[in-house]
Amino acid sequence: METIAPATLKGGEFLIRPSDNIFTPEDFDEEQRMIYDMAHQFIEKEIWPLLDRIDQQEPGLMQSLLDKAGELGLLGAALPETYGGMGKDFITATLINEAVGAGHSFAVAMAAHTGIGTLPILYFGTPEQKQKYLPGLATGAIKGAYALTEPGAGSDALSGKTTARRSADGSQFILNGQKIWITNSGFADIFTVFAKVEGATDKHQGFSAFIVERNTPGLSFGEEEHKMGIKGSSTRQLFFQDCAIPADHLLGEIGKGHVIAFNILNIGRQKLCAAAVGAAKRAIELSVQYANNREQFRKPIASFGAIQYKLAEQAVRLFACESALYRTTQLIDALEKESLAQGIPHEKALLQAAEEYAVECAILKVCGSEMLDYVVDEAVQIHGGNGFSEEYPVSRAYRDSRINRIFEGTNEINRLLILDMLIKRAMQGRLPLLQAAKAAQDELLAPPAALTNIINANSTDFQTLHSQIAQWKKLALLIAGAAVQKFMQQLEDEQEILMALSDIIMDIYLAESSVLRAEKISRQQPDSLYPLLAQVFVADATYRIQQQANEALMAFAEGDELRILQSAIRRFCKVLPFNTKQARRRITAALREANTYCF
């Protein structure tokens, strides 16, 4: 298989082509580290001491904190200097998202403002719209929100009932309808609102986006929602009753609202993963410190194997997710910069780059949110009864994390999208998956090559790990190819199969990202424990992939076909001997010594 540099790896190509190097958090430059530290200190000093007051939604508090973030440049970091932003690159913006991710409800409010509240105007606004709103959004003088979801339209966003009717003289649009679950709605100054333009004849029924200002007559708000978590974030319903807005508040083109919604989601999924990484680091820090200090049977509970397993597994899952996050972030950043060099405007360059890596962004969203849910759940368990008390911060972390599996498209939708996007790209000729699946099928019928390398907790054969992951890719392609042949266009109705395949693909991406990062750092630091983190993830992923592969096959294959495909699991998903217990104990020892997450 050909080895290529990360900047030339196209979206989804990780499944068929390996990379010999990736960008990692260890590659951040000095300025990026300084900006991260500044953002983290802001959360530590300005947000953590006020978490109870934030959760009580003290009037004006969230707005004042957003204003302080704006003064530091955090709200406008990714906006061009032309509009009052800092003009920082995508990697730096991701670092800020990570640092702020430990800010609980504030993180949600800021992410909604800087992401879905600002980016639609940046990417799709007219020059006049950008000049009017972006400078204020960059400083926090204007606060933004995004109104897409309706009572009957969640994941199926295009089924929304909110309408926009042109006025007789064409100078206005008259909006009628309802939106729910709108973050920042209690104080936002402007909303990106999606509605169907009456009389439009396009296939999307005129689904369009509009900029609606808060003081617009006919716009009203429901009471604050009482939520399970992120209690400090403002969440209200919006009601539009003959709400008249100027015609020049149309954002983009009539009937192209889906382009805005879906493109913003790609970037939002990557941002959500970054925030999850930041939140997980904080939860692991709390877990390690509590386990070091809490004694039972005259010993710190961190000395017990059951707790060591939990601490190490928290670190392993975070390491894998963080590795995949910054691998993807650099790919998007590199493609954006390549487009800029070709004269493509900044606004289009990042959108195109994010669309190219939409598969990877969906993977990040699912893996990031589920990694964080695991970490905070085990953080509560490590704290025991105290973890169930509001006096300890892990209880808030547990409640606040749950929404992430619903934000930015549910994890179920994103799992289905991973396969849907890969198959569509194959059919369009953008990704040679069919050829790769055929090659895997041919190899299955040939005599197997020996894979005799044995890895252990004291040495790492990275070539063996890469070979193992390459075999997983063949298995995924083989099963996916067989499922496509079996169901053709009806495969989209076989969601159980699609979700099992997506789980395999996600494990492949995270495992490869972990191994590439560990390999890169071990060349610089031979005594690094990074290889142990990667090896534990690979060892456990082997069993997960075996299970998901069997579940997928049992759902559609039988007889000789089933026997042949099951032989592919035995051939392409072999378990290599590795002492995960010993590796986890060494990982935990490092965490205990550092008294925090240290990888």
From TrEMBL:
<dbReference type="InterPro" id="IPR013786">
    <property type="entry name" value="AcylCoA_DH/ox_N"/>
</dbReference>
<dbReference type="InterPro" id="IPR049426">
    <property type="entry name" value="Acyl-CoA-dh-like_C"/>
</dbReference>
<feature type="domain" description="Acyl-CoA dehydrogenase/oxidase C-terminal">
    <location>
        <begin position="255"/>
        <end position="420"/>
    </location>
</feature>
<dbReference type="InterPro" id="IPR006089">
    <property type="entry name" value="Acyl-CoA_DH_CS"/>
</dbReference>
<dbReference type="InterPro" id="IPR006091">
    <property type="entry name" value="Acyl-CoA_Oxase/DH_mid-dom"/>
</dbReference>
<dbReference type="InterPro" id="IPR009075">
    <property type="entry name" value="AcylCo_DH/oxidase_C"/>
</dbReference>
<dbReference type="Pfam" id="PF21263">
    <property type="entry name" value="Acyl-CoA-dh_C"/>
</dbReference>
<feature type="domain" description="Acyl-CoA dehydrogenase-like C-terminal">
    <location>
        <begin position="472"/>
        <end position="571"/>
    </location>
</feature>
<feature type="domain" description="Acyl-CoA oxidase/dehydrogenase middle">
    <location>
        <begin position="145"/>
        <end position="243"/>
    </location>
</feature>
<comment type="similarity">
    <text>Belongs to the acyl-CoA dehydrogenase family.</text>
</comment>
<dbReference type="GO" id="GO:0003995">
    <property type="term" value="F:acyl-CoA dehydrogenase activity"/>
</dbReference>
<dbReference type="Pfam" id="PF02771">
    <property type="entry name" value="Acyl-CoA_dh_N"/>
</dbReference>
<dbReference type="Pfam" id="PF00441">
    <property type="entry name" value="Acyl-CoA_dh_1"/>
</dbReference>
<keyword id="KW-0560">Oxidoreductase</keyword>
<keyword id="KW-0285">Flavoprotein</keyword>
<keyword id="KW-0274">FAD</keyword>
<dbReference type="InterPro" id="IPR009100">
    <property type="entry name" value="AcylCoA_DH/oxidase_NM_dom_sf"/>
</dbReference>
<dbReference type="Pfam" id="PF02770">
    <property type="entry name" value="Acyl-CoA_dh_M"/>
</dbReference>
<feature type="domain" description="Acyl-CoA dehydrogenase/oxidase N-terminal">
    <location>
        <begin position="30"/>
        <end position="140"/>
    </location>
</feature>
<dbReference type="InterPro" id="IPR037069">
    <property type="entry name" value="AcylCoA_DH/ox_N_sf"/>
</dbReference>
<dbReference type="InterPro" id="IPR036250">
    <property type="entry name" value="AcylCo_DH-like_C"/>
</dbReference>
<dbReference type="GO" id="GO:0050660">
    <property type="term" value="F:flavin adenine dinucleotide binding"/>
</dbReference>
<dbReference type="InterPro" id="IPR046373">
    <property type="entry name" value="Acyl-CoA_Oxase/DH_mid-dom_sf"/>
</dbReference>
<protein>
    <recommendedName>
        <fullName>Acyl-CoA dehydrogenase</fullName>
    </recommendedName>
</protein>
